[in-house]
Write a structure and sequence with these properties.
Elements lengths: L4 E9 L2 E7 L5 E4 L6 H9 L24 E7 L4 E6 L6 E4 L2 E3 L10 E4 L11 H15 L3 H20 L6 H32 L9 E6 L9 H10 L1 H7 L10 E6 L4 E2 L5 H23 L4 E4 L8 H14 L3 E5 L13 E8 L2 E7 L2
Parallel strand pairs: 3-13, 3-14, 8-12, 12-13
Antiparallel strand pairs: 1-2, 1-4, 4-5, 5-6, 6-7, 9-10, 10-11, 14-15
Length: 365
């Protein structure tokens, strides 16, 4: 059975005053001019997972202006679950599943969601932060509890960094925090390695038109300690250096994702723009295939403006792989011609903007 969004309602969300969609399991092709509100629909779907969505926006930034009434997203999933997430002005985001208030991490047990957006096009040539975030989203898709151990690690690290900035030198203040960081950090690193191993297996023998990548987890100071005891000892040994820096300089928060274009043996950072994009698409599809094998259902796939950067053959190959996977992929493009080869294998929406409000309508090719 395919997990898909059967009903989606946006209320005062970004440019959408009210948008209500009834959908089936087929891919969703959304066309319309730039600025019409297409990506806002994908962003709403991305908020059916933990975190700040595909744009990493704060709850306040999602409120429609000028009304500023607060926003709400409601979705009915094919399995019968109803998910509601919302925020009032000045208040944090709230999540309800089947009418009960839940922590955001509970969303990862309801639906798995993977995405690719234009801001990720420079992933291989920019800083490590975005690559870690990319890897952690992949890891979270396989291991729903990953978000909790990352939060535990980051919370303890913030407390340790506060001590470092205050130049606290008493070892007793650090010991418990470093033990907490080490235990959570061991889990973070183990989960990341497990995710990379799963991707490697899913790439082997896959029939795909997109290039494969060899992935590795790296650290600026060499290999990370492979146990909580070793990581705790390394943190203790590094206190004087960290005191001078005013922050923690070792640990999984400094890890990086290194990718090599397998067929050429070239680092992704040295590949052409087109090759880098193809590698990203390949990894998202690989992630989706692995999840389909592991859970029995493909994840929701969000692909913002992906078709515009592919030639006709690569677009057709992408659509064929998505349809073969059976995933409800949400895709945006400026014109319906970008989705012609999908035909009735997809459901088509057109989004237009009128007087500052986005209108989404079902269309036929």
């Amino acid at each position: 059975m395919t997990t898909h969004v059967a009903e989606l309602t946006l209320s005062h969300f970004r440019s959408h005053r009210r948008t209500a969609l009834s959908l089936d399991a087929r891919p969703v092709a959304i066309s319309g001019p730039n600025g019409a509100g297409k990506t806002n629909i994908l962003e709403a779907v991305s908020l059916l997972s933990p975190g700040r969505g595909l744009r990493r926006a704060t709850a306040e930034e999602l409120i429609r202006r000028p009304e500023a009434l607060g926003w709400k997203i409601t979705a009915v999933l094919s399995g019968g679950h109803e998910v509601e997430t919302s925020a009032m002005p000045g208040e944090p985001r709230v999540v309800r599943i089947d009418g009960k208030t839940c922590p955001q991490v509970a969303l990862s047990r309801i639906a798995r969601i993977v995405w690719l957006v234009p801001s990720m096009d420079r992933l291989w040539i920019e800083g490590a932060d975005n690559r870690r975030r990319f890897l952690d989203r992949i890891t979270l898709s396989f291991i729903p509890d990953h978000a909790e151990v990352v939060l535990t690690y980051e919370k303890a690290m913030r407390e340790r960094n506060r001590l470092l900035k205050d130049m606290v030198r008493d070892a007793h203040w650090y010991t418990a925090l470093e033990r907490q960081m080490a235990e959570a950090g061991e889990s973070v690193t183990r989960n990341r390695h497990a995710a990379l191993s799963r991707l490697a297996v899913a790439q082997d023998g896959a029939e795909t038109a997109f290039p494969t990548a060899e992935l590795a987890l790296t650290h600026p100071d060499g290999d990370l300690p492979d146990s909580s005891d070793k990581l705790a000892a390394a943190l203790a040994d590094n206190r004087q250096t960290d005191l001078r820096a005013g922050r923690t300089l070792i640990g999984p928060h400094r890890a990086d994702l290194f990718a090599t274009y397998t067929a050429k043996g070239v680092p992704a950072a040295q590949c052409s723009t087109g090759e880098q994009k193809a590698l990203l698409i390949s990894l998202v599809l690989t992630n989706a295939r692995a999840l389909a094998e592991d859970t029995g259902t493909p994840p929701l796939i969000l692909l913002d403006e992906v078709a515009a950067h592919l030639d006709a053959d690569r677009r057709a190959a992408l659509y064929d792989e998505i349809c073969a996977l059976g995933a409800q992929a949400w895709m945006t493009g400026t014109g319906p011609e970008l989705f012609e080869t999908l035909g009735d294998r997809a459901q088509h929406l057109t989004v237009r903007e009128t007087d500052g409000t986005s209108i989404a309508e079902r269309t036929r090719l």
